[in-house]
């Protein structure tokens, strides 16, 4: 059986959704395929996110990821909304979660790292849910 495809989405696909894609690959690559996208793109991934992901996880997001549109994704099984504070982009799927995370862009490293921690916990919980409940997709 193929692994479910999970899309982490937000408006600009430049920070939280990029972090979630990278941490999904790191911590749950054996359970699901990770993607991220938004209804708009940015020319580059948030540089604080890039720097802190390198420091904490030794992940170079710029080497393997870039800002993408929802239309760039393959068919998705699970959508995870990051917490857009606006109407979140819609993407057809069989299951949806909303993590309601605040955007750390422009905030202190402490606030940024707190969001990284939350995303790591949520990615691991999602992987466990898929494993244990055998999420029927």
From TrEMBL:
Look up the coiled coil feature and give its residue ranges: none
Q: Which domain of life is it from?
A: Bacteria
Q: Does the keyword Lyase apply?
A: no
Cite the Pfam families for this sequence. LMWPc
Domain Phosphotyrosine protein phosphatase I: residue ranges: 4-129
Q: Which SUPFAM superfamilies match?
A: Phosphotyrosine protein phosphatases I (SSF52788)
Keyword Magnesium in record: no
InterPro entries from the entry? Ptyr_pPase, Ptyr_pPase_sf
Keywords, ordered alphabetically: Arsenical resistance
Know the name of this protein? Arsenate reductase ArsC
Species for this entry: Acetobacterium tundrae
């Amino acid at each position: 059986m193929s692994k479910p495809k999970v899309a982490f989405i937000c408006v600009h696909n430049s920070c939280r959704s990029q972090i979630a894609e990278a941490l999904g690959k790191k911590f749950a690559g054996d359970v699901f395929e990770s993607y991220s996208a938004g209804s708009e793109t940015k020319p580059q991934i948030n540089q604080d996110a890039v720097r802190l992901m390198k420091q904490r996880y030794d992940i170079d997001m710029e080497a393997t990821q870039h800002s993408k549109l929802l239309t760039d994704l393959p068919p998705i099984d699970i959508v995870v909304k990051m917490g857009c504070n606006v109407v979140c982009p819609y993407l057809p799927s069989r299951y949806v979660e909303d993590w309601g995370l605040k955007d750390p862009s422009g905030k202190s490293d402490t606030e940024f790292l707190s969001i990284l921690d939350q995303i790591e916990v949520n990615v691991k919980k999602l992987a466990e849910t898929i494993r244990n409940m055998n999420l029927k997709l």
